[in-house]
Amino acid sequence: MVSILIKIKNLCHIYHPYKKDQIKALDNINLEIKRGDFVSIIGSNGSGKSTLAKHLNCLLLPTSGDIWVNGMNTKEKDKVWEIRQEVGMVFQNPDNQIVATTVEDDIAFGLENIGVSEEVMKERVDWALQVVEMEEYKKSEPHLLSGGQKQRVAIAGAIAMHSSYLVLDEPTAMLDPRGRREVMDTIKKLNKEENITIIYITHLMEEAAESNRVVVLDKGKINLMGRPEEVFTQVEILKRLKLDVPQITELALRLNEKGLDISPHTLKVEEMVDHLCLYV
Amino acid sequence: MFICLENVNFTYNLHMPFETKALKDINLKIDESEFIGLIGHTGCGKTTLIQHFNGLLTPTSGKVYVEDLDINERGVNLRLIRQKVGLVFQYPENQLFEETIFQEVAFGPKKLGLSEDKIEKRVREALKMVDLDYNLYAERSPFSLSGGEMRRVALASILSIRPRMLVLDEPTANLDPQGRNRILSEIKAIHDNFGTTVVLVSHNMEKIAEIVDRLLVMYRGEIIMDGPPREIFEKYADDLVKVGLGLPQVTRCMHELKAKGKEVYTGVLTVEDAEKEILVKLKRFNKQLKI
Fold first, then answer.
1. Which residue in B has a C-alpha nearest to residue A182's C-alpha?
2. Alpha-helical runs (H) found in B130-270
3. Rg (CA), chain B
4. Element holding B27 (H helix, E strand)
5. Are A254 and B175 in contact (CB < 8 Å)?
6. Pick from B153, B161, B166: which is nearest to B192 by CA?
7. Which pLDDT belongs to residue B291?
8. Buried (b) or exposed (e) across A165-175, using 16+ Cβ within 10 A?
């Protein structure tokens, strides 16, 4: 039976292994990502987040250790294309990822490359556009879209391949608050309604708080892992790792210390408001 | 007054099929030593606006004055204006090019024609401002640094020109929380210690709310709000969301409490503010109970 998950075992990655300035970017990572999960990866600059992401679809290969995507080892050369189809990627800068002159052509680009029939292609493009709620922009020119819309087109391009995993490397870093909200809502919808597994790299703790599981990387190692409400209460560890906690969690922790009966695991403004309504 | 914009309009691709009006009738005065935040959704004209501050763009109509000098007049020495108004673009680390950090930061002062001694002094001073140890960093390659460090070197290479005004376009994008806090506290210190006028463009509502004294909100090429952040977040929360911006989490929390009929002050900007406000309200409530 083929296992439906990404399994990472003893993964190490060293940049320039034969030079003096070799850097151990990943150091013995063990992680399993199950179908339907929504995992966020946080960590300071240089902690290995992007290096890890690039291993998930064979853009990088392990120096030692193994990764299996649905049972396929990323080291098997003849599986590369199959793995890349399974694991879609969206990067930070939308302008670097758009290749065609209309939105629909851009989404169809990957499909053309794998030789899908025209009928299927049309069907998939329409489906992907509908999922990211961009149907009305089908014929638009990508450069006239906003940043958030461009990112949604990039996401549509990835899911049109029927990928079961979507890896997003800081997809909202260049967006304004509304663009961020759009992208986050799209991702959550993909996860819930289409059962696509999400691996989400971010520097924004508020975004990580919306996932099911948070992995904290530090110097290439997994330092903390757990549900967001577990991870974000470890304020001291997070600060030591150059990270932060969402404002609302910090407020909850402080009020909790002052003796208020507010759970330090509060992650959402709504929870906080409901709690406080009992008091104020 | 340091910078003054009078009825500034700017149109990209004027008289062309893709004509876009990026700035509409901007009137803006910025005094010496102000610390200003500029926010607005992508494409609202923020970057276009700041490029008018040192003559990188010339208004389609209207005037830009730097210290009462109309900078778009014929014969104005724009080099001099650009020494006064230092612009730090998005991802300034992409503009690093020298072999060592010393050379990188010395580039500006060298072009000013300063003596060797003075150049070294400026480099030391600028690196100190961004909290990089001269002895450890001067001879290293800027490309061997982490993202946050590269950005600070890029900032230092502007600071070494000793601009009177510093305009920064999204200086914290892509940095981890600590790198973010660090660069912002360095900018704040530069403002506080040297009286440098600062304009900070950012999407990070939490941080900008905390550090600036005056907030400008742009929407579709116009400045629609201008005032202290506390006031703007207190009074115009709904409008901010309407124009594609957000509120800091704690501010949103207070607004939602108020919407549920609780008498709380909504102009909170930081976690400390919110904590204080909630505790004060609690005390009052507890007293009533005792009576």
1. B244
2. 134-137, 147-159, 177-194, 205-211, 229-235, 237-242, 249-259
3. 21
4. strand B20-30
5. no
6. B166
7. 40
8. bbbbbbbbbbb
Q: Which residue has the higher pLDDT, B251 or A176?
A: B251
Question: Do the beta carbons of residue A33 and residue A59 sit within 8 Å?
Answer: no
Judge: A176–B274 Cβ closer than 8 Å, yes or no.
Answer: no
For strands A5-15 and A23-34, give the pairing.
antiparallel
Kindly report the CATH number that applies to the domain delimited by B1-76+164-236: 3.40.50.300
pTM for the whole structure: 0.83
Q: Which residues are CB-contacts of B103 (< 8 A; sequence separation ≥ 6)?
A: none
- CB-CB: which of A43, A203, A258 is closest to B279? A258
Name the closest residue on chain A to residue B43, using Cα atoms: A146
Q: Given strand B3-12, what is the order of strands in its sheet? A: B20-30, B3-12, B61-66, B69-70
Please compute the mean of the pLDDT values over residues B221-234 and round it to a whole number: 95
Q: Contacts for A19-25 with beta carbons within 8 Å, 24 or more apart? A: A21/B144, A24/A220, A25/A51, A25/A220
B128-158: pLDDT as tens digits:
999 899 999 999 999 888 778 899 999 999 9
Count how many pairs of residues, chain A against chain B, have C-beta atoms within 8 Å: 114
Select the residue from A23, A241, A242 to test the B interface by mutation, using most B Cβ atoms within 10 A. A242
| Chain A residue numbers touching B256 (CB-CB < 8 A) | 269-270, 273
Give the containing element (helix H, strand E) for A52.
helix A49-55
Assigned token pair, A99: 């290749």
d(CA A193, CA A132): 12
Q: Does residue A22 belong to the interface with chain B, where contact is any CB pair within 8 Å?
A: no
Q: What is the mean pLDDT of chain A?
A: 90
| DSSP H helices in A114-264 | 118-131, 147-159, 177-193, 205-208, 228-231, 235-240, 247-257
- How far does the CA of residue B270 sit from the closest CA of chain A (Å)? 8
Give the per-residue pLDDT at A3: 66
Of A43, A251, A280, nearest to B250 by CB-CB distance is A251
Task: Encode pLDDT of A174-209 as tens digits.
Answer: 788 888 888 899 999 999 999 999 999 999 999 999
Give CA–CA dist B58/B45, Å, rounded. 14
* Domain spans, chain B: 1-76+164-236, 95-163, 248-291
User: What's the CATH superfamily of A5-245?
Assistant: P-loop containing nucleotide triphosphate hydrolases (3.40.50.300)
Residues of B in contact with A176 (CB under 8 A): 40-42, 203, 244-245
CA atoms within 13 A on the CB side of A262: 32
Closest chain B residue to A244, measured at CA: B177
